[in-house]
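Quick one, tokens below:
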């Protein structure tokens, strides 16, 4: 099984991979969903603080690859016969190293400017998205503490998402095809 990891700062457009993966019948596992699920299991409201604190607590409790452990377990239990599985939302080099211990992993980074990402988050209105600039910056800094910047900078491929959505999807699909064909 080959893994393709999608990374990028909040609001960069990572979840668009789901739309493209559907065309190729490739399963997509969201690491953010794992953290949101853990937040709800604790009976907490989904908001930026609670979800962020849950991510930090998971890493303190299980180590820096905390979210990768249940994620990979889920993949191996449910998608063991798949040739390719996409993991959306890789945030740290610890997670990258953990996944690579067990499977080949190619990383695709999605990049958008902070201003573009903030405007997207405000308009998508997911419970754990910040609608104030200060909270947005606080979340970005927390993500950077997880070493997401290193994952982005060391990615195998980078897709810029600043223009129109159709162009972005087209570019993302081209890169995904390259990642699928590349043997790591």
């Amino acid at each position: 099984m080959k893994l393709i990891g999608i990374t990028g700062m909040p609001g960069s457009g990572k979840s668009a991979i789901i739309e493209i993966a559907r065309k190729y019948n490739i399963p997509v596992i969201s690491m953010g969903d794992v953290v949101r699920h853990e937040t709800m299991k604790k009976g907490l409201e989904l908001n930026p603080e609670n979800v962020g604190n849950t991510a930090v607590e998971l890493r303190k409790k299980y180590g820096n690859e905390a979210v990768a452990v249940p994620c990979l377990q889920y993949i191996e239990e449910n998608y063991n016969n798949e040739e390719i599985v996409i993991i959306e939302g890789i945030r740290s080099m610890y997670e990258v190293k953990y996944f690579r211990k067990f499977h080949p992993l190619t990383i695709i980074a999605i990049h958008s400017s902070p201003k573009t990402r903030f405007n997207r988050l405000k308009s998508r209105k997911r419970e754990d998205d910040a609608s104030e600039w200060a909270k947005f910056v606080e979340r970005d800094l927390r993500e950077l503490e997880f070493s997401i910047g290193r994952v982005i900078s060391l990615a195998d491929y980078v897709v810029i998402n600043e223009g129109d959505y159709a162009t972005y999807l087209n570019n993302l699909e081209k890169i995904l095809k390259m990642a699928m064909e590349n043997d790591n």
